[in-house]
Amino acid sequence: MLARSLAGAVLALVTGIAAQAQDRPTLTASVLKFGTVNWELTTIRENGLDAANGFALEVNGVASGSASEIAFQGGEADVFVSDWLWVARQRASGRDYVFIPYSRAVGGVMVPEGSDAQGLPDLAGGRIGIAGGPLDKSWLILQAYSRRELGFDLKGETEQVFGAPPLIFKTATGGDFAGAINYWHYMAKMEAGGMRRLVDIATAAEALGLDPDTPLLGYVVRGEMVVERPELVEGLVAASREAKELLASSDTAWEDLRPHMNAETDEEFEALKAGYRAGIPPKGPVDLDAANAMLSLMAELGGEELVGQATELPEGTFLQPAD
Prior knowledge:
alpha/beta, 5-stranded mixed beta sheet, globular
């Protein structure tokens, strides 16, 4: 009789847990298979932060950023990662997308270990490797910074080589560039491999009057989800912040992530960990005036090809905390 009672209790418990799991809505994220956002999403899932905040996180890895964007726009994903300038452009053209801050980490200019360069003018006559294309935001900021603050035409006085981040990383670490501009995680690996930091994008942006605390990258969701399923969006925001707090304070959490990080040396691992932590955006609302100042600069530098019709920050671009 006792055995039957215990078996019944266990069955009831398992059934109850299964029912709770089925009651939780699924949030599908489409992200790059090897993107750094996976560190946060893995932390959310492996620590049950999605379940604790009322949802089940499903992650679909894709091969490119454009593939994740297509999945989102095609309704195959609830969320993907992009920059808020893209969201502003979409809102200005009538698409109701909303940006949830994820990271303010940005890259910079790296030079080979033996380089004598002490500033951007010292790169004159050399080749610069640039991750992305001519409208890469870091490249545009550096051009403006160099011209306005240093009186140096960075674009006119150097040869630019544009390419995918891994290619720029590999070529730069091989010593084939006078300088290289790459995303923050490749920059961290380049520094760990002996290259030297010449200029941070954050430093250049601040010199131009921009706020380095403005988060550039974030989760993008549809406005209808914010209105119709606020608890799901709030759950994502809470889980993301809890994951950040865990990764900011726990080295053990990072050891668990290490197999996912493609860090070939201890130096790379530590540099990537420090870079992620430095990029955690502050709590609280985004400074909309600061964001508008950045958008105005990007509109000036990149024109309609970069920002579309978004010459001013569209209302509702950022998901702001409730008062």
